[in-house]
Amino acid sequence: SGGGAGLYVVNITNTASPSGTTFALGTPAYAAAVKGLALYLATGSATQEIRVYDVTTPASPTLKTSYNLSGSSLATTLALAGPRLYVGATANASYKEFYSFDVTNTGAVLPLNALEIGSTVYDIALKGTGALLALNDSSAEMRAVNVTGSSALFFAPNGTYNLTSTEVGRSVSVTGTSALLGRQKGTAIQEMVLLNTAAGGG
In angstroms, rounded to a whole number, what is the distance separating the alpha carbons of residues 9 and 58? Predict the structure, then answer.
């Protein structure tokens, strides 16, 4: 959070009695992903939107490296799959909103590609060779993007999902050919929508 510790590390060795440790980041942390002993964070920092921490000692993480995303404090979310890191960002007329990075070496965040989405990316769910994006877009609450290897990112055919009403996408999770999309609260809609994604992306 912006006014709290930023990062909470919870020990769940004893699931009946978890214990936590706080760690001050000096900035909000919006999303986290772990690869081995490396913790990746999407943060609200103006110059270190992506941070990578060594969590060999979980209660005392140490900064390994960081990456300054285009713009200032625009990172919103991230997702990790093997040697690839995907980062979403706030909509901005001057910068793109979806990025891919090579994180084969956990001590480096190397930019690969970027894609103009045209709206804020709130969440990312990886599905095969694609990524499903929950978007701040009332006419395309979710879109599928092809993220194959290190090639250019591009929108998947038949991968735009325009749902009833205008409440935007906020979160997304995927399993098999189904995706669960969370939406902003509305007055006459279901905020959780189960979608068949077999025909679009990945």
Answer: 7
